[in-house]
Design brief:
This protein has 12 helices and 10 strands. It has about 300 residues and is an alpha/beta fold.
Amino acid sequence: MNKFKKLGLTAGLSFTLLLAACGGSGETSSDNGQSSNDNDLGESLDYTITGIEPGAGITGQAKNTLAEYENLEGWELQESSTAGMLGALESAIKNEEPIVILGWTPHWMFSAYDLKFLEDPKGTFGGAEDIQTIARIGLEEDLPEAYTILDRFHWEPADMESVMFESEENDIPIEEAAKNWVEQNPDKVKEWTDGVEKVNGEEIELVTTQWDSELAFVYVMEEVLSQHGFDVSITPVDPAVVFQAIATGEGDASLAPWLPSTHGAFYEEYKEDIVDLGPNLTGTQNGFTVPAYMDIDSIEDLPAKK
């Protein structure tokens, strides 16, 4: 069911990462951003935040943050890709250089590296959020078994991170890590499926964003629904299209929305035309993120550009 061709939209965005040189002329920072001269930190970062895809909700939050904090006047957000951001982070940590990235949790980067969020006194990143499940109107009547499983689905940040981290650490596809998680957590899966009758090949289309965090969700659900007899298809799209697809019935359900802040604008636009099944995970966070070795704790610690 490749219905998204009708939307005339591609299932992803790819951008070339243009890495800003830390330290200007290739020199390695010797103080890890702890210099007594604040301008040294700003200059070593080229007054740049390393970001991800332009279509991501967190990208909009980051742009708003740059506008709201007076000390960030002159700073720029380097839009790229999640993979590009993670590559820049890994390189900086390997050389103990300063870097400020757009980070979010749950994500395997917090398991792999010692990171910290910068405090956000103005609240421009919205604080803790939930990840929620949404469905098209009529799904409960058309596919009641799938609707029940989707409605019951809830797991913890550690569950989600374990799927992503196994995929990264063992260099296996995230769908394989998701299948392993389902096999290793039968009691939790039973909470979602207990008493739900199996079906015989009914089709269901799950819509997701294309980041590892959301792919962990959708591949776990694909495995659970497949074991229950459903023919599951997955379509990754831009966040705005997630809501559009569910609202128009082009897709059946999504486990990807971050609310109330990250995808709040999309939710407000389409909320009358979707069914909100509530949180499937609580305790997420977005924000400017730095390696723990950097001696700054707040967005307000970032030096203004002179």
